[in-house]
């Protein structure tokens, strides 16, 4: 697919009038090939914008905290992957677990994306957003018979099987429906993804997939099952990988296995190579590999097999396409530090508490050039010390009622939020050019409370 021209969100400020295309660099925009950040959240006229909309205008309309996503960034990131695989047959299946709002799914679906789902809920969301079954891949270690039935009946591109017991159940469900379902088997290549332990999946100690050493045996079983049609091999080794070497090790193993399986008589026409390409969370000092390098690596390692390639990226498409915007409630002086107490909390964005994750946190009003940074412990109002977004973080000074934006919050942000401390889920907003819309409203307190029901014996 050719690069989609996207107007550079910075074009007014840089006055170059440049049209920003996926593979071009606007030298003023601060993003493009080799640049650390690929998004459309830039300062313009002294204030942070989401594409052509001032972030403060959205805050005034929906209240804080909230998530905001950029359509242009979502499309751009999808196109980067699509272009990176343009050398052959492929389908980029967005990992919906990273961001599953239906409006986002619609944007990506319209751009040509398939979806990678891991639950009946995600499957139904994808369908509701207009994604046809033949573009939906069903992953996940614990699919229930009910979920299998739902997806077979509604239409599915393939199931990625993760264990023998699951394979047996899928075969039974398919046969009971008179169906023959396309399957891949997820192999665990025992490769160290060199990422956070909680999101590494490709080592033998992890719960995912079938050990690659046993793959031929399991494929032989699958080949005899009347409800299954083996179409390919699946692998996913982890998330937020910032080095291509573990991918290379895993994909070489998949290539070798594919040749063995073909020799065993299986028709392997599809390779699902998972997701996991990392993004720069700390703008200043991270430069993970580009999708184009990743695509070239795929071509180098498995391209000769002539298979259709599927990938399941989540974070790289949605991560830098979203901000979480929050307001400073108090600035509190501790004994040896200052606390910035925000109205957003760990229930809204759990990544720092759960993975010690770094998110750049920036003021929505552009800091004056050369301003001396302040140092804060940035925290939410929840009653536990884990509700800390950053410790001793240097950032431009801000005060009460100022807005701050958490960058790179599009992936695993809203989807992992909860109502802990009875804090209603925060709204999600989608921007496209100069327009924005609420794509999930903040529930009222009444709506939140009304979901509880009182047993008769207590009323
Ligand atoms: N495919 C499979 C089978 C996966 O398990 C995952 C992510 C993906 C694709 C997408 O990976 P991505 O391209 O987004 O890295 N909550 C954690 C991340 C969990 C990732 C789980 N699996 C976080 O906030 O960092």
Can you walk through the features of this model?
The chain is an alpha/beta fold and 459 residues long. The strands form four sheets. Strands 6, 16, 17, 18, 19, 20, 21, 22 and 23 form a nine-stranded mixed β-sheet that branches. The protein has an eight-stranded parallel β-barrel with strand order 7-8-9-10-11-13-14-15, surrounded by five helices. Strands 3-4-5 form a three-stranded antiparallel β-sheet. α3 packs parallel to α10, α6 crosses α7 and α9 packs parallel to α10. The N terminus is likely disordered. Bound molecules: ligand LLP. Ligand LLP binds next to α11 and α12.
In short:
The protein is of the alpha/beta class and 459 residues long.
Count of helical regions: 13
Radius of gyration: 23 Å
Strand element count: 23
CATH class (first level) name of the largest domain: Alpha Beta
Distance between the termini: 62 Å
What portion of residues is helical?
25-40%
**Largest sheet composition:** 9 strands, mixed
